[in-house]
Request: fold
Amino acid sequence: MSMIGVKAPEWSAAAYVNGDKVTVSSKDYEGKWYVLYWYPEDFTFVCPTEIRGFQELLEDFADDDIAVIAASTDGFPSHRAWFADRETFPEAITHPVLADTNHSVTRAFHVLKEEAGIAFRATVIVDDEGIVRSVFVNDTQVGRSPAEVLRTAQAFQAGGLCGVGWHKGDSFVG
Reply:
């Protein structure tokens, strides 16, 4: 069943936020656009490329009042150790990274790879009314483009018909 056009589930989880363990929930984002993206596991090879990619675009997301939240099924201690590795993450990761160890958030969005106990590589865009506008899901081995996630969120915010290659400020189709 598709989640497109329906209210996003309420969620709450411990998260890595600038080195601290805090609780982050959907209530923190009420009335705001947000992107929630999952990666399969800490200490892997494709995942840091995406995490760094989202981090590099944080200001662009923020310019459009879009929050970015990462998630995996790894725990907070794993996140803290991995994000402290300056070879893998030369720049600090400042957006929240959920530690969904009980899989409640991952299951709520139907992106848990049950047999492995990890998340698929998934992205959900939720609008300021709490409605799911987009869901991308890849199997674990293929990364996604954070720039395309940004473009897609901007297109939804623009409110018109946005063709292939549309970018913020472009004319609508039709």
In short: The mean pLDDT is 97. The two ends are 30 Å apart (CA to CA). Helices lie at 47-56, 58-63, 76-83, 104-108, 146-158. Residues 146-158 form the longest helix (13 residues).
